[in-house]
Amino acid sequence: MLSAVVTPEGDRIRWVELAGQGPARVYLHGLGATSPAYFAAVAAHPLLAGRRSLLVDMLGHGHSDRPEAFTYTLEAHADAVARALSEAGVEGAELIGHSMGGAVAIVLAARHPRLMSRLVLVDANLDPVPAVPRAPGSSGIASYTEEEFLAGGWSEVRDRVGAHWWSTMRLAGRTALHRSAVHLAAGTTPTMRELLLDLKLPRTFLYPQADGSLPGAEALEAAGVAVVAVPDCGHNIMLDNPEAFVRATAAALAPATP
User: Fold this and answer.
1) Helix boundaries (H) for the chain
2) Which residues on neighbouring strands pair with residue 93, listed in sequence order?
3) Does pTM top 0.85 for this prediction?
4) Which SUPFAM superfamilies does the record match to this protein (predicted)?
5) In terms of residue numbers, what domain contains 207?
6) N or C: more exposed end of the chain, with fewer CB within 10 A?
């Protein structure tokens, strides 16, 4: 387990690092998740192994610190990850971001372009979503005020999300979880989708084939984003169908042919 100080107060981001050669690969988890649990198996797959790989836990999540004073906006998450990557000597990384991690990755690429060379988004959040009581995911968590969530709303979320998601969500700081969800639901200005359209590096968006056509796919493809439907999976593509995830990700990260 490695770490870097990323706030003036001394809070640390931590990551599991797999040794390898060439430009680093960085894996970022989603809301209430942790990168080692979600990405270790696929990062070690023969099609992706052999590259230096950092499985990063964002502030408030997994093994990283849970500062109460941190804002947990997407921009703050991105800047904190950027400080960790700079401390680790990472530049020109290939970044794979799932869900909220994909949204953070887009902001990271826009704010710190030297740190990234390729971007693979795994069913990432691209647009703001309204807060909806009792809904799954960020919109349901964002429907509580912070005071309501800390006073007991978190236990209602626990009962709704089920044992699998709660197994990693319970590791997140409750303040961190709520603020991250609120800011993820609110999105950025410009939106994550608009930022993604303007990025110049190679970009791929993976999504579950069962969801049907991806909204806005034509505009994404027109801007050079490869949109790839992955079969036999839900939102957690790398866990639901790891072989298909690995194949799609390896293809997205393959060197460009002349």
Assistant:
1) 35-43, 74-87, 100-111, 138-142, 146-148, 154-169, 174-186, 192-198, 217-222, 237-240, 242-253
2) 116
3) yes
4) alpha/beta-Hydrolases
5) 2-131+188-253
6) C
